[in-house]
Amino acid sequence: MTNSRWHFYLFLSPLLLWLGLLVIWPHANMLDVSLTERSYIKGNSFSLKHYRLFFEQPLYWLTYVRTAWVAILTTLMTLLISFPVAYYIAKIAKGRSKLVLFLACILPFWVSELVRAYGWMIVLRESGLLSGLLLSLGIISEPVEFLYNDGAILLGLVYSGMLFMIVPLVSALDSLDNSYIEAGFDLGGNRWNILREIVIPHAMPGIVSGCIIVFMLSLGNYLIPNLMGGKDSLWFTEQIFTQFITRFNWEQGSAFGILLLTLSSLIVWLSLKVTRQSLSSTMGQ
Fold first, then answer.
1. What is the pLDDT of residue 284?
2. How far is CA 118 from the centre of its chain?
């Protein structure tokens, strides 16, 4: 029994080390730094100054709210686009076509996010492919800049999050027995009734799982808002970057990081409560 227990702990040790050294300890240290006011004369002392500054400066909390809103909107748009794709892959496509479609979703993610972002910038810039196509068709009379706005940020975030929404949805929909759908039609149900009463409830763990992942990735994304939204994108991760790297204000940057973590945790908790799902059931997808 003792040997079995030691084997169990040894098996879990990489996971525990990863959680402790790379997740728990850095966040605990960041919380400690955020609550510290550094003074070369009086020494370090406990202070809520950096959190008060967040609420006293409209730029900070307005950017905070804006980032949360765009991340939620990104998650909803990704779900609406990904659900039909996942349903087709899981329930309609057969054999090789199913594999080809799934690979088509995965293939763009074989390159880095930076490459994908620059790919969209080539398409959307003023001298890019989209503007050139519209000019050639006579739809516009002069080149149009499609970058550096909220629409470009949304497009980039939705594109980056689609795979992470499709995979749990396909997993959840694959386990749905087709006989339930056939029974729904036999009992006089239409497509909307079957979608609402059978498909969506069965896929709910996958929906919640995908939404949590996409929301977290969107909320903490730095690259796409910075590249596709430009310098005036007003994304909260840029504020964190500015505090840490530009101003070397680690206390303020740590406070912003803790606030972003609190926001993401709160919204995930609320989404689980609203959908009546448990974290274990959604993460099992």
1. 56
2. 19
128's tokens: 């890019």
Q: Is the pLDDT of residue 185 over 70?
A: yes
**Is the confidence at residue 3, as pLDDT, over 70?**
no
- Compute the half-sphere exposure of residue 262: CA atoms within 13 Å on the CB side of its CA: 11
CB contact at 8 A, 44 and 37: yes
Show Cβ contacts of residue 110 under 8 Å, excluding neighbours closer than 6 positions: none
**What are 36's strand-pairing partners?**
46
Mean pLDDT, rounded, for 205-233: 90
Tally Cβ neighbours within 10 Å of residue 136: 9
Which token pair is 253?
A: 């940057």
Which tokens hold the place of 181? Answer: 């759908």
